[in-house]
Design brief:
The complex is a heterodimer of chains A (about 110) and B (about 110). By secondary structure, chain A is mainly β. Chain A has no helices and 11 strands. In chain A, a hairpin with a 5-residue loop joins strand 4 and strand 5. Chain B is mainly beta. In chain B, strands 2, 4, 5, 9, 10 and 11 form a 6-stranded mixed sheet that branches. Classes of the chains: A mainly beta (about 110), B mainly beta (about 110).
Chain lengths: ~110, ~110
């Protein structure tokens, strides 16, 4: 089955740690996106990539980093510089117009 | 700043009624319009898209687009309790910009 897989579903991070969220797609989509969603809030764009080896900052990129070494993969690293990382993180991909989402990763700082 | 606005709700309708959700956008050059449904704690799911002025129907859902007035709406006929969710409106501009602009969503509750 084609789709977008995010892992893990739940992630706990200690203060000062970097953590990496995985996003893999087998839909042959060119564009991939990372969003953050806080309770009662809309989707805020962190980073996006339209092609392999290229990516752009979104609206809230500070404290995050990404890579796009393969078409299928777009991992997001939440660094210790991100002061309030507790949120629901969503990865999406697009080929033409419609975007499709993975199941999300819920990150909690402990 | 390109914006997409939705009433936050909550919108409450009785089971079997028509639910009407509205969205306005600021970028007159916008070309593509999407409605996503998001259940609590889950990721958004695409339920409708529309690219041309007028109505587009898919089962109980109808999307309506009016580019002159810069609004897009979603009608849900014969609303069911399972339709209770937050509905997100997303808009894509013209050109090579592949970013979607998102509304904050409208919370819909369907009462049995």
């Amino acid at each position: 089955d084609g789709g977008i897989t995010q892992s893990p579903k739940y992630l706990f991070r200690k203060e000062g740690q970097n953590v990496t969220l995985s996003c893999e797609q087998n839909l042959n989509h060119d564009a991939m996106y990372w969003y953050r969603q806080d309770p009662g809030q809309g989707l805020r764009l962190i980073y996006y990539s339209q092609i392999v080896n290229d990516f752009q900052k979104g609206d809230i990129a500070e404290g995050y980093s990404v890579s796009r070494e393969k078409k299928e993969s777009f991992p997001l690293t939440v660094t210790s510089a991100q002061k309030n990382p507790t949120a629901f993180y969503l990865c999406a991909s697009r080929k033409d117009r419609e975007a499709f989402f993975g199941q999300g990763t819920r990150l909690t700082v402990v | 700043q390109k914006e997409v606005e939705q009433n936050s709700g909550p919108l409450s309708v009785p089971e079997g009624a028509i639910a009407s959700l509205n969205c306005t956008y600021s970028d007159r050059g916008s070309q593509s319009f999407f409605w996503y449904r998001q259940y609590s704690g889950k990721s958004p799911e695409l339920i409708m898209f529309i690219y041309s002025n007028g109505d587009k129907e898919d089962g109980r859902f109808t999307a309506q687009l009016n580019k002159a007035s810069q609004y897009v709406s979603l009608l849900i006929r014969d609303s069911q309790p399972s339709d209770s969710a937050t509905y997100l409106c997303a808009v894509n501009g013209a050109g090579n910009n592949r970013k979607l602009i998102w509304g904050l969503g409208t919370s819909l509750g369907v009462n049995p």
